[in-house]
């Protein structure tokens, strides 16, 4: 374990941990393999065979604004959101598919920063991009004391369990994040400007990213900058009933979702955006068109089958809860949280945040949140 720049080995016999506030345990980054059991048991219901002659064209639907979106995939996205009730995805909104939500995030930055409204209002270039801290970032946190406690990021890749094992010092640099994605190309259009709460330039155009439930603290968030000059991107990757209560359908200008958090299929590299404004959607599509000439059709066809399987088991088939994705995911997350809480209570070193219950319209019950990114929230006692 790296403490103050020096390597400290955790005892293999006692498992004792140092209590320095500079201790870091890197859990970066998550891999949703917890869903493998569910999809193995789904068997042929989620199986797909793609003939060699299929998906050869660049085009999916030339009549659609997003011409590389497979129509069946778009239909299953709308169906799933209607089922869960977590987002408004009506016919007056535009579905845009991307190579993960990471590409859609950059497409949204491009679309908003090149809007005629921004050009007409003037303001500084590049356009500042902010998000309320703590935000999705690969940067190491700055520890701060409050109420006799200290925040810390758990960094498991730096735990040394044997004398021959070397800590992976580069792992934090491998994860995508809002700051890294914003500043990757050093764009003249936009730049990362840090914490939305301390942002002082709200009189000029800016972009705020609202991640809710938040990564990394699992809390429900809203806009932080009180200004009429901001444009907002809502990252709703974790707004699914296995992680949090679905209290109402989100209805925002730009909403981002990803298959990796919804169904666990991170390897498909698929995300989707629900966009209200046609011109914003058109510029997002242009970004994807120029950068990757569309999105894999094979992945979209597989995702169509996956989403259809999820919805069918709630709407069509009479099945046990264990065969329903969101119930399976919620039970798995609840069990993991209980094990974590037991381990933390026994450690006498860490404490966990206390979440408030809320009524979930999808599950039809009052429930606690079970964030999928919980371990980054541990604080020293």
TrEMBL record:
GO MF term set: carbon-sulfur lyase activity; transaminase activity
Ranges for domain Alliinase C-terminal: 25-138, 174-371
One GO BP annotation of this record: amino acid metabolic process
Cofactor annotation: pyridoxal 5'-phosphate
Classification via InterPro entries: Alliinase_C, Alliinase_N_sf, Ethylene_sulfur-biosynth, PyrdxlP-dep_Trfase, PyrdxlP-dep_Trfase_major, PyrdxlP-dep_Trfase_small
Keywords: Aminotransferase, Pyridoxal phosphate, Transferase
Name of this protein: Tryptophan aminotransferase-related protein 2
Originating organism: Platanthera zijinensis
Record gene name: TAR2
């Amino acid at each position: 374990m790296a403490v103050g720049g020096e390597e400290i080995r955790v005892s293999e016999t006692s498992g004792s941990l140092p209590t320095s506030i500079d201790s870091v345990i890197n859990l970066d980054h998550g891999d949703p393999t917890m869903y493998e059991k569910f999809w193995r048991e789904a068997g042929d219901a989620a199986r797909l065979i793609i003939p060699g002659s299929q998906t050869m064209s660049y085009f999916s639907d030339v009549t659609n604004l997003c011409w590389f979106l497979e129509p069946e995939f778009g239909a299953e996205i709308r169906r799933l959101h209607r089922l869960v009730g977590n987002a408004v995805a009506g016919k007056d909104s535009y579905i845009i598919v991307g190579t993960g939500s990471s590409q859609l995030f950059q497409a949204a930055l491009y679309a908003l920063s090149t809007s005629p409204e921004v050009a007409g209002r003037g303001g500084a270039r590049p356009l500042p991009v902010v998000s309320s801290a703590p935000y999705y970032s690969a940067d190491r946190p700055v520890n701060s004391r409050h109420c006799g406690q200290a925040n810390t990021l758990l960094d498991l890749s730096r735990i040394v369990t044997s004398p021959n094992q070397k800590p992976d010092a580069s792992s934090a640099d491998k994860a995508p994040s809002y700051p890294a994605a914003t500043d990757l190309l050093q764009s003249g259009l936009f730049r990362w400007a840090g914490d939305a709460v301390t942002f002082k330039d709200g009189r000029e155009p800016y972009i705020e990213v609202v991640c809710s439930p938040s990564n990394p603290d699992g809390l429900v968030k809203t806009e932080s900058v009180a200004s009429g000059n901001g444009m907002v991107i809502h990252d709703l990757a974790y707004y699914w009933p296995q992680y949090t209560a679905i209290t109402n359908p989100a209805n925002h200008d730009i909403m981002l979702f990803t298959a990796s958090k919804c169904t666990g299929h991170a390897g498909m590299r698929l995300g989707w955006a629900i966009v209200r404004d046609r011109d914003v959607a058109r510029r997002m599509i242009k970004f994807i068109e120029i950068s990757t000439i569309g999105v894999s059709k094979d992945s979209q066809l597989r995702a169509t089958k996956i989403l259809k399987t999820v919805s069918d088991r709630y709407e069509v088939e009479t099945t046990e809860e264990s065969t329903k994705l969101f119930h399976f995911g919620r039970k798995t997350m609840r069990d993991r949280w209980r094990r974590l809480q037991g381990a933390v209570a026994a450690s006498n070193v860490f404490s966990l945040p206390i979440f408030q219950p809320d009524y979930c319209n999808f599950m039809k019950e009052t429930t606690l949140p079970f964030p999928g990114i919980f371990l980054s929230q541990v604080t020293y006692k």
